[in-house]
Amino acid sequence: MRLAILGAGPGGYVAAIKAAQLGAEVIVIEDDEVGGTCLNWGCIPTKTLIASSEVFLKAKELEQFGIDLKGEITPILAKIMARKNRVVSTQVKGIRGLLKSWGIALKEGHGVLTSAREINVNLKDGRREQIEADRIIIATGSRPARISAFPFDGEKIISSNEAVNLAEIPKSLLIIGAGAIGCEFACIYRELGAEVTMVETLPRAVATEDDEISDLLEKELKKKKIKLFTDSRVDRVDVRNDDVHAFLPDGQELVTEKVLVSIGRTMNSDKIGAEAIGIKRGKRGEILVNDRMETSIPGVYAVGDVIGGMMLAHVASKEGLVAVGNIMGTGEIMDYSVVPAAIFTSPEIASVGLREHQAVEKGIKIRIGRFPFRALGKAHAIGEISGLIKLIANASTDKIVGAHIIGPHASDLIHEYAVSMKNGLTVRDVSGTIHAHPTLSEGLMEAAEDVHGEAIHVPKK
Amino acid sequence: MKSYTSGKEETMNPDDLKYHKEHTWVKVSGKRGTIGITDYAQDALGDIVYIDLPETDISVEANSEISEIESTKATSSVISPVSGKIIKVNEELSESPEIINEDPYSKGWIAVVELENPDELDSLMDSSEYEKYTEEEQK
What we know:
heterodimer; A: alpha/beta; 3 domains; 13 helices; B: 6-stranded antiparallel beta sheet; globular
């Protein structure tokens, strides 16, 4: 089996390694850098920046922890970015090393499908190479969506790609779009000292999260003095001298140093020859696949952001594994019912399964358990007491239907519920398991207990 | 892990205020009423870490939420004892919400409203009634 993979992001490189492990000859084509958006522009850079902004935040609270620090604490963005670049390049080297160790050929350049079995690569060194394969996986990912009203200039009107590479902390920043990406950058730059304003067309920030969670995030944003306009929009932006003027429908004019546009992502399905060879695409440009990740052209598979759906790195990786499973004959079907997802705002948000309104719409009779972080001794010890754990259970089977967490380490905590859900454990299985004290995980047990009105550290209702 | 007792000396509830059963007070001066939470409320909440102050120029109805307070123990609604338009809020609380713990009846005031319906005051408790009420609640 000779497998060619277009794109070396978390969809492509994971598929490549898996296929090599199963004995395939694998060629990976990448026109930017291995690791894709996730490693070079998204997940890892932002989490590294958040690590810096959180250290800065904690440093400002040192006194509360009984530590006296003399002198000023100043974040230097150039140094923060240098650290970020080191973290990214270490990971890039790691992936390159992995690919090499599995004997995977990496072709650096832009690949275009010329048939269902051929890819023409325009190599970075100027040469061209025609690659033939028995099977192809398209894993070309996505890029920040651009609309003509907000033309990126990379300087005053920027996308997330520039936001992870700024030279200086802007004095003020307007963020158009209060989804996951917008809210993460809002927290990073606010904590580093920028005045941050957000404008969102939907009625809530992180509108795809459970209502209660996004309400709580809005409150946390307010505490940070991040201004949020929901149910609104920016009609127009004007760059004048050193400022950007943005106009809202009610006549308000917002003046900021920079504008970050985070209104979604566009699939990279347009410059890879997909249309020319007849691969069917959806309305938004997403490549259509079946539950085995195969496109409308037999033998050509697609995974990750380029197929739309849940545009998450770990989903892309799983889709890559499923595609390889089907290519190598082990057979597998992609199951999206248990996908943990995290948003790295401060505090963090994490979820798995259905939102409350989705469960109700599906006609499931539900029972909800809630537990606030401020009722945990550990939360007080670490000085992070804001947040809530919300567990939604099927009232008749007691199985977990969905779980939503906003609070410290939410992105790590969610997995206990995800494993429970995936394996059909009941809420009582979770609450009946001893959880170590003092930990944040105790909150997961208490929320499970609360589903049945049995939580210990909640006052009588 | 949780404790609702406090070693603090009990503060007397001032006589010139009117009290709401949701543990808020209003001090009337002419057509204006200043609103805050009672000593009993701040003591029950424990250390206050955040207050979501209302905006000025909005109208609030008696018995509805005017603000939200977060303490180390709980998140709690502040219920307005009276109806009216909010004309002033205590901005100092956004930086130092602990003022409410320290001085709930004076420096810890939350908002001033222009009273819409002074008759509402008749349905509120005076200090001795409120004292009896909180004694009942504690039982």
